Amino acid sequence: PRSVYTTGKGASAVGLTAGVHKDPLTKEWTLEGGALVLADQGVCLIDEFDKMSEQDRTSIHEAMEQQTISVSKAGIVTSLQARCAVIAAANPIGGRYDSTFNLTENVELTD
């Protein structure tokens, strides 16, 4: 299956979902799919999920719930397919998993 790997530390909400930018040659707005769109019908692997900002983590909710990415920017209104499995890895606090604590206590993620 198709797979896309990204890191939470370097990924932004736009890099995970989709972004709009102006083409330097044509001066027209163009749409560029992010990791979840590129992984359509495959797997998106996100490493260092714990290092992502809360806003960036929130941006992938639509993709995981609806399997689509909605875009409405610069006059471009569309919905992109993001039918993929998301596998996210997070590092434990202190670099070592402590089996006497539960997952929430081991990995620093907000609710």
Topology:
Blueprint: E1 2-7, H1 13-16, E2 18-22, E3 29-33, H2 35-38, E4 42-47, H3 54-59, H4 61-66, E5 68-73, E6 76-81, E7 85-88, H5 103-106
Parallel strand pairs: 1-4, 4-7
Antiparallel strand pairs: 2-3, 5-6
Overview of this protein structure:
By secondary structure, the chain is an alpha/beta fold. Helix content is 22%, strand content 34%. It is built from five helices and seven strands; from the N terminus they run βαββαβααβββα. The strands form three sheets. A three-stranded parallel β-sheet has the order 1-4-7. A two-stranded antiparallel ribbon has the order 2-3. Strands 5-6 form a two-stranded antiparallel ribbon. The two termini are 31 Å apart.
